[in-house]
Amino acid sequence: MTSSTFPNISINTERLVLRPLDTDDVPPLTEMMNDEQVAAWTDIPQPFTEQAAHTWITEHAPAERAAGRGLDLAVTEFLTQRLVGVIRLTRTNWHIRSTELSYIVAPWARGEGYASEAAMATAQWLFGDQKLERVELRTAADNTAAQQVAQKIGCLSEGVLRNACIAHVRGDDGVWTDVRTDFIVWSLLPEDLEGSAEQLADTGQFTAFTDWS
């Protein structure tokens, strides 16, 4: 495959639909991005406005995909169509056939295993349909929830990038302050997926049915 951009696709799992962001997502995306946990562990500007969400959906995401750098997907519940998160692919290298995957889960959808299910389905699509050879994840040293997702989908921890991450802490006055910390680097290769899909299925958090179109 000689493609150097990701297609506009939809990925279905048993419980979720991953699809391109659209302008109907502006209100829930804005609410999700203003969540305390999202603000702490991402570089999303705070406060995050509806205008920022609209710009992301209509300008930034399409430009990143067109340039071949990445792909942003809304993660929605299959039954309710409610937005429950975002999967982001960034720093894509089509020569090496690698990309960096990250995930954000809305506060109203945490604890359901949605991040693992969405990340697993995306990885299966990347390795199967897009013929990528490496997916990389980076988690802040203290972000245990993100690390648990990486472990659940079968990632291997490769090492630590010291002082490479900026997290954020909100003081009593409500002002966010940058705090330097380490990144833990994880990788997922096609052969790593074989056991992890079965393992997630056993825990009831993933069904090894993935369909994309």
- List SSEs in N-to-C order: EEHHHEEEHEHEEHE
Number of strands: 9
How far is it from the N-terminal to the C-terminal residue, by CA? 17 Å
* Rg, Å, rounded: 17 Å
The percent range for strand residues is 25-35%
Average predicted local confidence, pLDDT: 91
The helix content, as a percent range, equals 25-40%
Organism: Streptomyces prasinus
Protein name: N-acetyltransferase
InterPro entries: Acyl_CoA_acyltransferase, GNAT_dom, Ribosomal_N-acetyltransferase
Describe this protein's structure.
- The protein has six helices and nine strands.
- It has helices at residues 26-33, 36-41, 50-66, 114-128, 144-152, 193-202; strands at residues 11-12, 16-20, 71-77, 83-93, 98-105, 134-140, 156-170, 176-188, 211-212.
- It is globular.
- Mean pLDDT is 91; it is low at 203-209.
- The protein has a nine-stranded mixed sheet with strand order 7-8-6-5-4-3-2-1-9, with helices on both faces.
- Helix content is 31%, strand content 33%.
- The longest helix is centred in the first third of the chain and has 17 residues, at 50-66.
- The protein is of the alpha+beta class and 213 residues long.
- This is N-acetyltransferase.
- Residues 16-191 form the N-acetyltransferase domain.
- InterPro entries: Acyl_CoA_acyltransferase, GNAT_dom, Ribosomal_N-acetyltransferase.
- It comes from Streptomyces prasinus.
